[in-house]
What we know:
50% of the residues lie in helices and 15% in strands. The protein is α+β, with helices and mostly antiparallel strands. The protein has a five-stranded mixed β-sheet with strand order 8-5-4-9-10. Strands 1-2-3 form a three-stranded antiparallel β-sheet.
Amino acid sequence: xxxxxxxxxxxxxxxxxxxxxxxxxxxxxxxxxxxxxxxxxxxxxxxxxxxxxxxxxxxxxxxxxxxxxxxxxxxxxxxxxxxxxxxxxxxxxxxxxxxxxxxxxxxxxxxxxxxxxxxxxxxxxxxxxxxxxxxxxxxxxxxxxxxxxxxxxxxxxxxxxxxxxxxxxxxxxxxxxxxxxxxxxxxxxxxxxxxxxxxxxxxxxxxxxxxxxxxxxxxxxxxxxxxxxxxxxxxxxxxxxxxxxxxxxxxxxxxxxxxxxxxxxxxxxxxxxxxxxxxxxxxxxxxxxxxxxxxxxxxxxxxxxxxxxxxxxxxxxxxxxxxxxxxxxxxxxxxxxxxxxxxxxxxxxxxxxxxxxxxxxxxxxxxxxxxxxxxxxxxxxxxxxxxxxxxxxxxxxxxxxxxxxxxxxxxxxxxxxxxxxxxxxxxxxxxxxxxxxxxxxxxxxxxxxxxxxxxxxxxxxxxxxxxxxxxxxxxxxxxxxxxxxxxxxxxxxxxxxxxxxxxxxxxxx
Length: 509
């Protein structure tokens, strides 16, 4: 009785990899292996076992190729039956173990791309490199430079990828970022009744290539005249950056405090020596960032996330800002569109910076009296007296007869306090236990943007910078593993399922 080709193939499957395994075992019994140190043995086995696994991978693919049966029900997305089938179609695949080849049946039609059900079953990528290498490129390039990412991948896999390849794989890995976070059914974090919903946004500049600057910045850079030929002079390093917009949403349990708790004059409260309460701590932090989208678009994104967490607007929404008018306008417009009540609070650290700047209009550098003056004014602002403080600063400058150049910082401080007084209701915020500082978004700007995109000598293109921001946000949010599963599902649909008639999708062999 004749045995089928498939049965014979099963009998001889993995012959190559078994031979390789025997070679490794033979080496380990030889005197040569016995003379190696443990580190030398590690290095040798690392190379040998990578090759062994690569051969196992190849043998498995070859077995699948032999087992693949011709189908009569392959219909493409246009409804055309693919009846012409050719065998022996081979495509390369670079995996984390090394290079392999995939052999499969191709279902053909004139003037149309081949359909290969085996590609759908394997969820093969469009490019040469496997999803495993794409994932490594995404993880490593989000942590450090593309060159260092290439080195890290080479150390862990033995596969050498060029800088451009790393960048392209990382970009491919990030394409489903927006779709992933647009899922309404995404896992919801548990919150305690009464927890605040806090939103915040800010920006951080990235040094860009000239063709990636915004039109206004590019025009200013083109009009700038360098004083020297061999180096930049003072002030000539401007017009090199494009703003990356960063947004944050998080939950926070309110912690009521008082003004002295913030300034530090009331470390001990009451007769029982009770320590002042700690500042509220954020939980379930979610970050997003973009160098392509403008501030309004990123603010829409954080409102989308807040809406997902609180669709019926039952919680208290607090929005922390640094005082930028355009930012506040966008926030108010977004809240109005969603019919949600928000409380906008200006960052108290910005207020302190303005007060310190004003202090140098009245005190010499290093004068201890400046510290007391700032402390007094800050405490007054925290007690809801921003307008009074602004008037007092201007009056002091006038009384001293300061020249316009000397009183400039004082006037700017007074102007800021008056312009933002509607968002400086710190007595209400402290009593309700709201946050009054933008430390979360400031930290996000450093972590998402500065720590990776502000490397010495780095100049970014739009796509590369956008990719890294999205990958770093995924990792910072703790969502990368969930995202990767979602991304592979999306790839399956984009590259394979969408090319077949829905009712006739092929299944794995």
